[in-house]
Amino acid sequence: MKRMGSLEVGDRLPDVQLLDAEGSSIQLSSLVEGGPVVLVFLRYFGCTFCRAHVARVRDEREAFVEAGARVVLIGQGRPDQAAAFCRDRQLPFACTVDPDRRAFAAFGLGRARRRDLVDPRVATRAVRLAADPQTRQGAISGDPRQLGGTIVADRSGVIRFVHRNQTVWDDAPNDVVLSAVQEAARADVEGRPWRQAS
To answer: Which residues of 10-34 are buried (b: 16+ CB within 10 A; e: fewer)?
Structure first.
């Protein structure tokens, strides 16, 4: 069942405006040029769980390249924060920001409940990640209750996979995303919907 105001598998990417790391405007729908795109929505650039997720994607970047996917990170905040985030982590991905969170809203990405943020499981996971400077908690910017997600669209701009994080650490596993990318690469350019969505 389609959520009110949220995009699903089979819909086309919206013409939402983002800013790249230099502050230039880009249309979300233009990011599919050249092949499938993986949109990784981050809660905020200082989020320890987001940093860990991006590190896992970076560590398997060759698998994404071999599958023909372009990975684009979308966060809250300012272009300079996106640039620093990618530079400090040596990320080979496009880093963008959605200052008004219009893309977050278009995909129906939710917000964490207050009780979820103080859940002991969150603290336990965060403590483990704090040992690594690459995943250690950074500055909070934007709405810290914003949840992320992962979207895969084919080269015609049709959404082929949607994963909306249900918790602050509920990221789509790389193998699931790569499977969606492979399906997107083979997808009918007419945008025929297929089975995977979460």
So the answer is: ebebbebebbbbeeeeeebeebbee
Stated pTM of the model: 0.83
**Domains parsed from the chain with CATH numbers:** 17-186 (3.40.30.10)
Tokens found for residue 65:
């390249």
Amino acid at 6: S
Q: Element (H or E) spanning 58, and its range? A: helix 48-59
3-state secondary structure 157-174: CEEEEEEECCCCCCCCCH
Q: pLDDT tens string for the chain (198 positions)?
A: 344 457 888 899 998 999 999 999 999 988 888 789 999 999 878 777 778 889 999 999 999 999 989 999 999 989 999 999 889 888 889 999 999 999 999 999 988 776 666 565 655 665 565 666 665 555 667 788 889 999 999 988 999 999 998 886 778 888 999 999 988 887 644 455 444 444
